[in-house]
Every structure is written in structure tokens, then in C-alpha cells.
Specification:
Structural class: alpha+beta
Order of helices and strands: EHHHEEEHEHEE
CATH superfamily of the domain at 6-115: Gcn5-related N-acetyltransferase (GNAT)
CATH class of the domain at 6-115: Alpha Beta
Shape: globular
Number of helices: 5
CATH topology of the domain at 6-115: Aminopeptidase
Helix content: 25-40%
Strand order of the largest sheet: 1-2-3-4-5-7-6
Number of strands: 7
């Protein structure tokens, strides 16, 4: 059996419109609970940030199945990392991990620390971040909704 075929390209605005309607349901909920954003807003924000590095994963038919990247934060040498995908990748966690492992060195190159907040109910995201070397630091409910707990996941580059 052959593996799942995909390619990775620099992300473009057209990828937002392809991916947003097909985002994995757990991610749509996580985005809204974190800061009240729509899927389109969450995908557009990283592309609008100066010095951000953004990629799109395309399936063998050229359809956008994932967008991921990193953008600088106000903390020196620190970046916020993200990975948003369609339902097509929901049952392909190894594909997601392989894609991330290949591009993590590129995303890390200008940073000492990468981080993001993950909905504690989203166990699949927490698992793949741990496989990539991220560590769970603290849980907070101080994001948008105030009701849903999020865990801060961090990755120390070169540690």
C-alpha cells in the first residue's frame, strides 16, 4: 500500500478559501473558543504578519488540506506556531507528524522558543505536538470564552 501523497508549498491567500470550509471540526471549535475568530480569520491572520513563515499542504489533486507556520511574538526570539488541517487529514496522524517533522527545522530557525495554546479537549493535537517535542506547561481558562481550558505547549529550540 502506498503512502498518502501530498506536497508542501508557500501558503497563499487562495489556500485560505480552499481550507476554511473544510477545517476539522475540533479545530473550528478551538479557534472560536481561543479568540472568537472564524476559520477564515484564523487562516488569514498568519499570512498578514510580517516575518511570518507559512506553508500549505496540498493533496495529490492540488487541494489545500493544511496550513501551518510560525510568526514572531512580542517576546524576543519567540514564535507562535500553528497547524490547521481539513477533515481529510483527521485520520492520518502519521502524515501530519511526517509533514511537521520535515518542516519544523525551517520553522524554528529564527527562534529559541515556539509555543501555542491548545484546547485541552483536543487530544489529537496535544499528542502530535508532544511527538514533535513540545511540552505542556500550564493550563488556563483566561482566553476568549473563559470556560474552556487551554494548555500552553512550548518547544525549546536546540534543547
Amino acid at each position: 500500500m502506498q503512502g498518502y501523497k501530498y506536497t508542501v508549498v508557500p501558503a497563499e491567500p487562495k489556500h485560505i478559501w480552499e481550507l476554511a470550509p473544510n477545517l476539522e471540526k475540533a479545530q473550528i471549535s478551538e479557534i472560536y473558543e481561543a479568540d472568537g475568530s472564524t476559520p477564515h480569520e484564523a487562516l488569514a491572520w498568519p499570512l498578514s504578519q510580517p516575518d511570518a513563515v507559512n506553508f500549505a499542504g496540498l493533496n495529490e489533486h492540488g487541494q489545500c488540506i493544511a496550513m501551518f507556520g510560525v510568526r514572531p511574538t512580542h517576546v524576543p526570539n519567540s514564535g507562535t506556531i500553528y497547524f490547521l488541517n481539513s477533515d481529510e487529514l483527521k485520520n492520518r496522524p502519521l502524515t501530519v507528524v511526517k509533514m511537521c517533522l520535515k518542516y519544523l527545522p525551517i520553522l524554528c530557525k529564527d527562534y529559541d522558543l515556539l509555543h501555542n495554546f491548545v484546547d485541552t479537549r483536543y487530544t489529537q493535537a496535544r499528542k502530535w505536538l508532544k511527538l514533535l517535542g513540545f511540552k505542556e506547561q500550564m493550563i488556563t481558562t483566561k482566553l476568549m470564552s473563559g470556560n474552556v481550558p487551554f494548555v500552553l505547549m512550548t518547544y525549546e529550540v536546540n534543547k
